[in-house]
Design a protein that fits this description.
The structure holds two protein chains of two kinds. By secondary structure, chain A is an alpha/beta fold. Chain A starts with 11 loop residues before the first helix and ends in a 10-residue tail after the last strand. A five-stranded mixed β-sheet of chain A has the order 4-3-2-7-8, with helices on one face. Chain A has a two-stranded antiparallel sheet with strand order 5-6. Chain A is about 35% helix and about 20% strand. Chain B is of the alpha/beta class. Chain B has a domain at about 45-150: Nucleotidyltransferase, domain 5. Chain B has five helices and seven strands. Chain B has helices spanning about 1-5, 20-40, 75-80, 100-105, 130-140; strands at about 45, 55, 65-70, 85-90, 90-95, 120-125, 145-150. In chain B, a hairpin with a 2-residue loop joins strand 4 and strand 5 (about 90-95). Chain B is elongated and about 85 Å long. The chains are: A alpha/beta, B alpha/beta. The interface between A and B is large, with 44 and 52 residues.
């Protein structure tokens, strides 16, 4: 027969299309990675051991309270959420060496130098009725305050923002500007306290 | 061979059909689609994760175990009510079950990785802190001290 065979449709590109789809799914499923705020909880005190009083000097502690109606108090004054960061930053850095603000101590950082490290501790207290959203927002502000202080430290000492430092330098900065957030045992925070 | 020696030899040898290649790749694709769906446990609580601009990536995803806290999904509300509940693996649990959950999660890990275990608390943003404090206390009791509050970066 003189009938010519029609050439088959080139199907090699279907593989490419399928590969693209595959890559798409591979990407999107790994892209949904978990993000969040990492914390370490303090170990549960052993009831058999005598609890030694971990007295932290009053001036070294800043208390952030969230009441059951989601109002925020820093120290004893009601504060808006946008102001927490500045208050905490001022507290932790203590630029004027105010006696009511945290002590600094000279600490040697391995491989680096001796630096003045603030002893400030942020204590976060919440009520059982506080909403999680507010709690996370406040946590976020505290972390932001520390991150900005680290950034400032990095720029002052290394001339670069924190994220662009080498891993070793980041470790030093982390030690020079520690992030100590104490999440208190659950207690009821009275709105009028 | 005489078969190829004849006049037929002028004809083109048909190329290797690559049509099946796409089938193989599609099979791979389906494999990934299915497994990635299977890994996530079915959510029985509605969780709208709060926003936090300073959230960081979870470093070792394989070392994380998840605790979901939120109100039950609509189809289960008739059965379980609308109060915030704790979901571990695939079912609703109470806070007393966290101890067993942590123990079994720890058991399924490499010995070397056990101290690095992170518990990821995925809680709805409208949940009250009471239930989360309970969970935290329970976690402290079972020495799962490394936790992570699940949060997402706000869209810029």
């Amino acid at each position: 027969m003189g009938k010519k065979k029609t050439p088959a449709i080139n199907s090699s590109s279907t593989a490419d299309i399928a590969f693209l789809l595959l890559c798409y799914f591979l990407m999107t499923t790994t892209m949904g990675s978990q993000t969040g705020l990492a914390r370490r909880l303090p170990p549960m005190p052993n009831p058999n051991e005598k609890v030694e009083d971990q007295k932290v000097n009053r001036r070294n502690i800043i208390i952030v309270r969230i009441t059951s109606s989601d109002r925020i108090m820093v120290g004893s004054e009601p504060t808006d959420i946008t102001q927490i960061k500045d208050k905490v930053k001022e507290f932790l850095s203590n630029p004027n060496n105010d006696p009511n603000m945290p002590d600094k101590e000279l600490k040697h950082i391995e491989g680096y130098k001796d630096v003045m490290v603030s002893k400030g501790v942020m204590s976060l207290q919440n009520d059982r009725g506080t909403t999680y959203k507010t709690y996370i927002a406040v946590q976020n502000e505290l972390v932001k305050a520390v991150n900005e202080l680290r950034d400032e430290y990095a720029i002052a000492n290394f001339g670069k923002p924190y994220l662009r430092l080498s891993e070793e330098q980041q470790g030093w900065v982390k030690k020079a500007v520690p992030q100590i957030i104490s999440e208190a045992e659950p207690m009821d925070v009275k709105a009028n306290r | 061979m005489s078969k190829f020696g004849g006049s037929n030899s002028k004809k083109d040898v048909p190329g290797i059909s690559s049509g099946s290649l796409s089938d193989i790749v599609f099979m791979l694709l389906f494999f990934f689609m299915v497994t990635t769906q299977m890994r996530e446990t079915e959510n029985k609580v509605m969780v709208k994760i709060p926003e936090a601009s300073e959230s960081v990536k979870l470093e070792r995803k394989d070392l994380a175990s998840y605790i979901n806290i939120g109100t039950p999904i609509r189809s289960l509300q008739a059965q379980y009510g609308t109060d915030a509940r704790i979901q571990l693996n695939d079912s609703f649990k109470t806070k007393e079950d966290i101890r067993n959950f942590v123990a079994s999660e720890r058991e399924s890990m490499n010995e070397a990785d056990r101290p690095l275990m992170t518990v990821c608390i995925r809680a709805d943003q409208d949940v009250r802190m009471g239930i989360i404090s309970d969970v935290k206390q329970e976690l402290r009791r079972c020495y799962a001290n490394s936790i992570m509050y699940s949060a997402r970066k706000p869209a810029e």
